[in-house]
Amino acid sequence: MPDATPSRSLPLAGASNFRDLGGYTGQDGRQVAWRRIFRSDHLASLTPDDRARLAALGIARTVDFRGEQERAQLAYLLPEVEHHQLAIEPTVVQRAIELQRSGRALTSQDAVELMQETYRGFVHENAPRFAEFFRILLAKDAPLVFHCTAGKDRTGFAAALILLALGVPRDVVMRDYLLTNELYRRPAMAAGHAPEEVLAVLWRVQREFLDTALQKVDQDYGGHETYLTEVLGLDAPARSELSRRYLQGK
């Protein structure tokens, strides 16, 4: 008997954090559609077999949240795929360097605070990119993969927004976010640039990071529903269309 449930994680030789957002229970008990929206780390190291697998999945669009220098260092091109660049420049590394230049020895707590500051920035400073992301999702329903470099922070917040907009409960959203810690393989080049206790924070995710962003949303907007509507432009017709495209049933 064939397995009726697709696999969430799709192991690829050139990307360790590639996975499907489908299968979660959302609004009105409807399930997020499988094989429509994928999240990933960067796609610059995909092998020919990996590329063939993405083609077999029907992926026709990518959304790249990486900054300009990140894209230049790890460039990729997937023929026949529509590419969207929504640059959110990384700030954690630059802030860490500034602290080190001031003579401060970085600690794991410093790293946590830097990450939390980054997530607060997602809510306000980077809102236009996330609003545009939803416009891309609503433009057509061809399968799409969105990513940044590690597929954990910018991508993690974007995934949380999608799932919340589709009515997935916050505790489930958090579980999806934390899956990165089971899947993502830290690049070897990251070693040696900071103490291991700091790297262990910067190259993983923690509940506190996403909680910081969602608490900021709650504090400033009274909840994610108002944020989605007033800041990201998901009015009632847009929410209805999003549900029609990406929730199964009814």
TrEMBL record:
<dbReference type="InterPro" id="IPR029021">
    <property type="entry name" value="Prot-tyrosine_phosphatase-like"/>
</dbReference>
<dbReference type="InterPro" id="IPR026893">
    <property type="entry name" value="Tyr/Ser_Pase_IphP-type"/>
</dbReference>
<dbReference type="InterPro" id="IPR000387">
    <property type="entry name" value="Tyr_Pase_dom"/>
</dbReference>
<dbReference type="InterPro" id="IPR016130">
    <property type="entry name" value="Tyr_Pase_AS"/>
</dbReference>
<protein>
    <submittedName>
        <fullName>Protein tyrosine phosphatase</fullName>
    </submittedName>
</protein>
<dbReference type="GO" id="GO:0004721">
    <property type="term" value="F:phosphoprotein phosphatase activity"/>
</dbReference>
<dbReference type="Pfam" id="PF13350">
    <property type="entry name" value="Y_phosphatase3"/>
</dbReference>
<feature type="domain" description="Tyrosine specific protein phosphatases">
    <location>
        <begin position="128"/>
        <end position="189"/>
    </location>
</feature>
<comment type="similarity">
    <text>Belongs to the protein-tyrosine phosphatase family.</text>
</comment>
